[in-house]
Amino acid sequence: MYQLLPPSRRNRQVDLAEVYAYPGGARRWVRANMVASVDGAATADGKSEGISGEADKRIFGVLRALADVVLVGAGTVRAEHYRPAKVRDQYQAARAAAGQAPTAAIAVVSGLLDLDWSLPLFAEPAVQTIVLTSEAAPPEQVEAATAAGVEVIAAGAGYVDLGLAVDRLAERGLGRILCEGGPHLLAQLAAAERLDELCLSVSPQLRGGDSMRILAGPDLTGGLPLILHTLLTEDGFLFSRYLVGTLSTAKKGESDGGEG
């Protein structure tokens, strides 16, 4: 994998852990990782698998290895058959030095808690799985989740307040947050003004049809400005790292990005 932007004088494979390092000193940093075809499709037959590739999956693994927690919607958990994050030996020393658990926890956003608690994601995680819900969640489902060993966090009264949910994670020391979607959750995260960074993989294919884009929700008033921070390529894919905000935000990310 090679770096196109910023231009590099070194024609070599990049260190992905270095390129995607979290800004140092930030109590909370929320990045999203999504993949889309050239014509904007975020899924193929309802899943991201059909538009992904080996290089994309490698970045997926690195981003998880750097994160404290992976944020994902219940619908995506069901559609993608989510499993617990893997413990990767090559990252254990760095994670221990950063005070992180052996792997990222998975935090599932669900208002109704209509989930199968016997699945490995809930029953066999290396790090306790979290469910982010509201105070209006069905009590019997909360009890079932707790009995299965899941940590249930209420964020909001009648519905899940995603901004509050992100704050609840940060309060627990889980400030390096990686959102893996789906499109509805990412739209809510952007609308809640909690998104700091977007990592977008562009797959070299056209899909057509009526597939979702990476955001599915109401218009963002005035749009959300993005600054291109990094651009990588391999096998025809483009891997971009955007920072949310102004040029000053981007410069801060450039100065802090290597501190991890």
Automatic annotation (TrEMBL):
<dbReference type="Pfam" id="PF01872">
    <property type="entry name" value="RibD_C"/>
</dbReference>
<dbReference type="InterPro" id="IPR002734">
    <property type="entry name" value="RibDG_C"/>
</dbReference>
<comment type="pathway">
    <text>Cofactor biosynthesis; riboflavin biosynthesis.</text>
</comment>
<protein>
    <submittedName>
        <fullName>Pyrimidine reductase family protein</fullName>
    </submittedName>
</protein>
<keyword id="KW-0521">NADP</keyword>
<dbReference type="InterPro" id="IPR024072">
    <property type="entry name" value="DHFR-like_dom_sf"/>
</dbReference>
<dbReference type="InterPro" id="IPR050765">
    <property type="entry name" value="Riboflavin_Biosynth_HTPR"/>
</dbReference>
<feature type="domain" description="Bacterial bifunctional deaminase-reductase C-terminal">
    <location>
        <begin position="28"/>
        <end position="217"/>
    </location>
</feature>
<keyword id="KW-0560">Oxidoreductase</keyword>
